[in-house]
Amino acid sequence: MADYIGFGVTVDKVHPYLQAVVCAENVLDFALAARPFLKKRGLVPESDEVILFGYSQGGATSLHCQRLIENREYYGQKFKIKQNYCGAGPYNIARTYDHAVTKDVTGIPCAIPMIVQGMSIGMDRPLDMNYFFQEPLLSHYDDWLNSKKYTVSQMSTLIGSDSLSNILTARALNKTNEETIRFYRELLQNSIPTSYYPEAPLLMFHSEDDETVPFVNSQLMQRQFKYLDNVDYDFDHYGSHQQGAVKFLFKILKLI
User: Fold this and answer.
1) Considering 139, 170, 188, which residue would you say is the last residue of a domain?
2) φ and ψ at 5, to 5 degrees?
3) Which of 138, 155, 188 is the last residue of a domain?
4) Does residue 240 contact residue 208 with C-beta atoms inside 8 Å?
5) pLDDT of 206 above 90
6) DSSP 8-state class, residue 210
7) Are residues 117 and 85 in the same domain?
């Protein structure tokens, strides 16, 4: 389990939430660092192959990890993938954002502000949070989101609404504004490219009832991968994002 930037020894930094390459590199570099750690303690892995596994943010990151292994020579020489299990990931962040804007609701109120920040710190010219955040979030986001003092539930209570129109400004919700266009362009850049086709075995899981990471994410991937015989799908009415997570975990435990 990787220690993302913004946690552990880098807890003082802003987490680059859903920054595709950065988060995937965190996972893969951590796995590389684990090898000498295990060797020093006389522990030998059962196989040279690796299993990738993640849900929600981790689901998207797992697919980005597979993409880096298969398309970047450095990681391709280090890892051989046995299987990848991806559950309910925001593979297309732009469509996830669109869904939340259209519905004017988000299952996890802190997620959208975290996406805004996560995209911003990967840009040459950071986004202006005054443009995006309404009060009281604007005056408190650094404490509420970045201090790591609060759980997701506590952050939701502090933000005080699950309606995007109460969290983000009207300017931010208008996709014709320059600053929003810059943000949206970054969302697209950190989504799974439409040109990517996985080579290693992949299982994708998603509850069709999921309103936190909308099911359209996995539908788009299924459409993109429809001619591949190495990708399996488990889509059904498994309840909410959290209920789907439980179902996914038990399923993977049985498979592994």
Assistant:
1) 188
2) -55, 135
3) 188
4) no
5) yes
6) -
7) no
Instruction: Tell me what pLDDT residue 122 has.
Output: 87
Contact 65, 28 (CB under 8 A): yes
Strands (E), 198-252: 202-207, 231-236
* Alpha carbons 121 and 13: distance in angstroms, whole number: 11
Same domain, 67 and 134: no
Write the single-letter amino acid at 58.
G
Q: Are β-strands 80-87 and 202-207 bridged in parallel, bridged antiparallel, or unpaired? A: parallel
Question: What pLDDT band is residue 32 in, cutting at 50, 70 and 90?
Answer: very high
- For the stretch 129-152, pLDDT in tens is 999 999 999 999 999 999 999 999
Query: Rounded to 5 degrees, what angle do the CA atoms 226, 232, 237 make?
Result: 100
Amino acid of residue 200: A
**Total structural domains within the chain:** 2
Q: How far apart are CA 176 and CA 27, in angstroms?
A: 35
The tokens describing 113, both together, are 């502000």
Q: Take residue 63 and report the two structure tokens written for it.
A: 């697919």
Using the CB atoms, write b or e for 103-114: b if 16+ within 10 Å: eeebbbbbbbbb
d(CA 42, CA 38): 6
Q: Which DSSP string corresponds to 38-55?
A: HHHTT---S-SEEEEEEE
Q: Which helix (H) or strand (E) holds 86?
A: strand 80-87
- Provide the residue type at 123 as one letter: M
**Cβ–Cβ contacts within 10 Å for residue 156, how many?**
19
Domain that includes residue 183, residue range: 106-188
Q: Are residues 30 and 80 in the same domain?
A: yes
